[in-house]
Amino acid sequence: GSSQSALNFGAGPAKLPREVLNEVQSELVSYQNSGMSLMEMSHRSKEYAAINKSAQDLIRELLNVPINYKIMFIQGGGLGAFAAVALNFLGKTGSADYAVTGTWSAKAAKEAEKYGTVNLVFPKADKPGKIPDQNTWTLNPDASYFYYCDNETVDGVEFPYIPETHGVPIVADMSSNIMTRKFDVSKFGCIFGGAQKNIGPAGAVVVIVREDLLGNAMKICPSVFNFSQVSKENSVLNTPATFSIYVMEKVLKWIQKNGGVDGMESQSDKKSNGLYAAIKNSGDFYSCPIEENCRSRINIPFRVGGPQGNEELEAKFLEEAEKRYMYQLKGHRSVGGIRASLYNATSYEDVMLLVQLMKEFQIQHQN
Ligand code: PLP
């Protein structure tokens, strides 16, 4: 029960910029002196139309999205998007290539299997934590698309490059690292990301699709997942997650004001380098199981008390963290240990407070 802003290292829904939340609060019950909350307004009102347009324009500007790409919002979360991707694109040749590097790409592959043939381009590792060399992948030249998860939120694995697929359209899940680094949109067929980590509250998913890939959806594709239909109706085919998109538009403006994606990227490098350095400099007291070339800048899993982790010490670490207002540091139940998520709204200073805790905790508990 504190009004002090928590040091929130949660994986999602995640921390949002305080400026944005304060602004939302100030106009919550009367948006632009209308006497109505934005959440009480029609998705066809001129107020919401302006937000819908501004959010799309900001995404286009911030990510430098070429004109032959549509930007839209759907619901159903990341899991919904896994199905939507298959329903929109898998019909082309009936099969698709999936690179499974962790929890979320595995779930996406499983979802796609309901609608066609899924080829795993490399065998599933027993333990995630690395990305096999591209030369060893078996890509199908007739795949409808090649799919990967750019940042595995649970496992802490992030792609250090965009894969080479020799013309097969690339579909990427950027749910946990969208707007945290620059990338060349023109290399992709489709990019999607749930809002609830770097760009807003839960409820909306941003989808960016190259126009020539539209129009091939399966007959069974639900209208709300049909990218051609949704984009043709400018993301008001049906009632969108208006409040979520309204807050997202403010977060995007906040990103723009804070140096754009360039600014987010340099912050992200600084934050993650600081935390990885603290892990490295601890001897083996803290350890990260992920290979160095694919360590996530965003979700950083680590163990306390040796590479296998000491669960008792880890529980103590979490307790000590909460005493210092640091929350949601518990690793995913499938992985254990600690996980620090460093999304855009988490500052370098927040991370340094965590590093400080790590140092003090080590001094106290290393025998
Ligand atoms: N993809 C990634 C990379 C995620 O981190 C998550 C959720 O954490 C999802 C997909 C699933 O998103 P949702 O819970 O919105 O279905």
UniProtKB/TrEMBL annotation:
Gene Ontology annotations of biological process type: L-serine biosynthetic process
Biological pathway: Amino-acid biosynthesis; L-serine biosynthesis; L-serine from 3-phospho-D-glycerate: step 2/3
Catalyzed reactions per annotation: 4-(phosphooxy)-L-threonine + 2-oxoglutarate = (R)-3-hydroxy-2-oxo-4-phosphooxybutanoate + L-glutamate; O-phospho-L-serine + 2-oxoglutarate = 3-phosphooxypyruvate + L-glutamate
Keywords annotated in UniProt: Amino-acid biosynthesis, Aminotransferase, Pyridoxal phosphate, Serine biosynthesis, Transferase
InterPro entries membership: Aminotrans_V_dom (IPR000192), Pser_aminoTfrase (IPR022278), PyrdxlP-dep_Trfase (IPR015424), PyrdxlP-dep_Trfase_major (IPR015421), PyrdxlP-dep_Trfase_small (IPR015422)
GO MF annotation: an example: pyridoxal phosphate binding
Lineage top rank: taxon: Eukaryota
Any one annotated GO CC term: cytoplasm
Cofactor(s) demanded: pyridoxal 5'-phosphate
Domain Aminotransferase class V: 8-353
This enzyme's EC code(s): 2.6.1.52
Record family assignment: Belongs to the class-V pyridoxal-phosphate-dependent aminotransferase family. SerC subfamily.
PANTHER family reported in the protein's UniProt record: PHOSPHOSERINE AMINOTRANSFERASE
HAMAP family: SerC_aminotrans_5
NCBIfam families: PRK05355.1, serC_1
Protein name: phosphoserine transaminase
Natural source organism: Rhynchophorus ferrugineus (Red palm weevil)
Biological classification of the source: Eukaryota, Metazoa, Ecdysozoa, Arthropoda, Hexapoda
